[in-house]
Amino acid sequence: RYLPFCKLPGRVMGIRLLRFTSVVIIVLLLVAGALTALLPSIKDDKMPNLRREQKTQSQSALDSFTLIMQTYNRTDLLLKLLNHYQAIPHLHKVIVVWNNIGEKIPEEMWNSLGPHPVPVVFKLQTVNRMRNRLQNFPELETKAVLMMDDDTLVSAHDLAFAFSVWQQFPEQIVGFVPRKHISTPSGVYSYGSFELQNPGFGNGDQYSMVLIGAAFFHSGYLEHFQRQPEAVYALIDETQNCDDIAMNFLVAKHTGKPSGVFVKPVDIRNLEKDTNSGYSGMWHRAEHLLQRSYCVNKLVNIYDGMPLKYSNIMISQFGFPNYANHKNKM
Amino acid sequence: RYLPFCKLPGRVMGIRLLRFTSVVIIVLLLVAGALTALLPSIKDDKMPNLRREQKTQSQSALDSFTLIMQTYNRTDLLLKLLNHYQAIPHLHKVIVVWNNIGEKIPEEMWNSLGPHPVPVVFKLQTVNRMRNRLQNFPELETKAVLMMDDDTLVSAHDLAFAFSVWQQFPEQIVGFVPRKHISTPSGVYSYGSFELQNPGFGNGDQYSMVLIGAAFFHSGYLEHFQRQPEAVYALIDETQNCDDIAMNFLVAKHTGKPSGVFVKPVDIRNLEKDTNSGYSGMWHRAEHLLQRSYCVNKLVNIYDGMPLKYSNIMISQFGFPNYANHKNKM
C-alpha cells in the first residue's frame, strides 16, 4: 500500500525527518544556486578573460621568438652581442647556453646592469658539447627559435625581416648562411660554399643547407632532435662539429622540401677578431671543412639516403635599404 | 520426391537437353575463359601504358606553361617576340590573342617560316577588348599560364627561374612588375609604384599587386575570372584598362594571401620604341594612372572590401648571373 512520507511511524521521528529532509533540500538548492551563479560568470567573465589571456600568450608565442646563443670562451663578445640582441623587435627571451664549464655565469654583473628588455636565462652546462644548444629547453615558450653563434652580429633590420619570412615558411630553417653538398661520380659527397662547383641544375648555383648559427627555425625541431639515432649524437660529439648539418638532414627528411630558405643579409658581421680571449672559433681548425664533408657522408649512412634538397631561392627585402632596389631599366 | 535431371521423361529429349546444356556449359566456360584472358592483359599491359601516357601528359601539363600574348597594332613587335618566346624552355604552346579586328592573322607567313618549336594558335577577336586575353581558352592544356604584353621581352633565364618559383607558389601571380595601392586618411585608395609613399609597415616598401603583363599564374584563374560580377567586366571595358588589377583582387580574395610574388628580373626590356606602327601602348595615355586609382576604388566597391594584401618578399636567383651574388663581408 502506498505510504506517504509523512505517514512514517512516530510523529516525533516524522518531524525530525521532515526537518532533516528540508535541510537537505535547502542545502541542495543552495548548492544548485551557487553553481548556477558560478556558471554564467565562468561563461561571461572568466571565459573571455581566459580567452584574452590565452590569446595574449599565444599571440606572444606566435609573434615572438627566443634567441638561443651558445657561448664558449668569448664572454666579452657574448656581452657585447647581448646588448644588441636583447633589443631586437619580437624577441621574447634569451637563452644563453654556457659552455664555460666550471666558470661562473656573469649573473651578478648582468643583474647589476638591469633592468633588461627581456628575460635572459643562463643555462650552465656540465660538458662542453657543440650540441648543447640543441636541447629542448623548458624555458622555451615560443614557436620560433633564433639561433646565433656567439661571434655573429646581424642587424635588427635583417632579423625583423627574416623573422617575417620565417612566419611564411615555418617548417624551414630561414637564415643568412647558405651552404651546399655536391655529388661526385664516386658517390662520395662533398660539402662547401659557392666556391664549390654548382650542382648543375640549370643556371646559377644552388644551396642545400642553411646553417643554424644565424637562423630562425621552429622550436619543435629541438624536440625532434632529441629523437634521433644515437649515431648522430656520437658523430657530433666526435667532431664537435656538424650539429647544423644534422639539423638540416632532420628538417629535409621531415618536410621533403629544401631544409632552408636563404635570406640575403644586408648587415652581418663576424666579431671574432674583436675578442680579447684570443679564441678564434672552431671553423679555423685545419680539419673543419673536411670534417663537414665527412659528416655529410656519415649522415647519409645513418639516415640511409641523402634527404637534402637543392634550392636557388634568394630572398631580399623589397625597397630596403634602398627604396628603389627593385628598379629595372623598363 | 527428388527427380534427378537425367531422369526427365523421354530418352531422346533427355539426350537433346544433355547436348543443349553441354553446349551452354561449354559456351559459358569459353566466355569465362575469355574474360579471364582479358583481365590480366588490361591490368598488366594497358594499365601501365595508360599510366605512362597519363604521366607524360600530366607531367607535361605540370612541367610546362602556355604563353598568352594579346596583340594590337604591333605585329612587328609580336613577330620579333614570338621568335624569342617560342624557344623558352618548358613552353607548351603559344596563344596569340589577335585584337586587330578585321585584319588577317599572319598565319600564312607563320607557316611558311616553319617548323616551329611549339604550336602557336592565333585567336581572332571580334571586338578589341583589353579583357580578351582573360578568356578561358579551350586550347589551354597546362596548369600554368605565362602572360606577356606584346612589347615586353624577358630573358629566357628570368622566365625559367620565375616558372620554377611559380611551381613553389602556384596559387599566386609570380611575376616581374610589382605595384601597390595605398590608403589615404580620407579612405580613398591610390595606385602607384615605388615612387609612391611606403604603406608604412616597418622598414622598406611593400607591393600589393603583381601585374599580369609579365607573369605566371594558374590557368584556373582564367576560369575563375569568367565568374566575376558583371560590374568588373563593365569597368574593364569602360577603361580599357585594369584587367590586371581585377585579377589581383580575384587572387587575393581567393587565397587570403598577397596576390603576387615578385621575382626581380635580371633582363626585362620594353620594346615599344622599336615598333614601326607608331603605336605606343595604353600606358602613355594621360589618364592611365588616374584610371588605375579609379579602378582600385571601384573594385573595392564591387567586392565590398579591400582584399589586396601587402608583401615585401623579393626573390632573386641564387648565384645567377653572378655566381657570388649572395656573398657577404663575413
UniProtKB/TrEMBL annotation, chains A, B:
Recorded name of the encoding gene: Extl2
Protein name: Exostosin-like 2
Keywords, sorted A to Z: Disulfide bond, Glycoprotein, Glycosyltransferase, Manganese, Membrane, Metal-binding, Signal-anchor, Transferase, Transmembrane, Transmembrane helix
Record organism: Baryphthengus martii (Rufous motmot)
Enzyme nomenclature, EC number: 2.4.1.223
Bilayer topology term: Single-pass type II membrane protein
CC cofactor: Mn(2+)
Record-annotated Glycosyl transferase domain positions: 65-320
Record InterPro entries: Glycosyltrans_GT2/GT47 (IPR052427), GT64_dom (IPR015338), Nucleotide-diphossugar_trans (IPR029044)
Gene3D superfamilies: Spore Coat Polysaccharide Biosynthesis Protein SpsA, Chain A (3.90.550.10)
Subcellular location(s) of the protein: Endoplasmic reticulum membrane
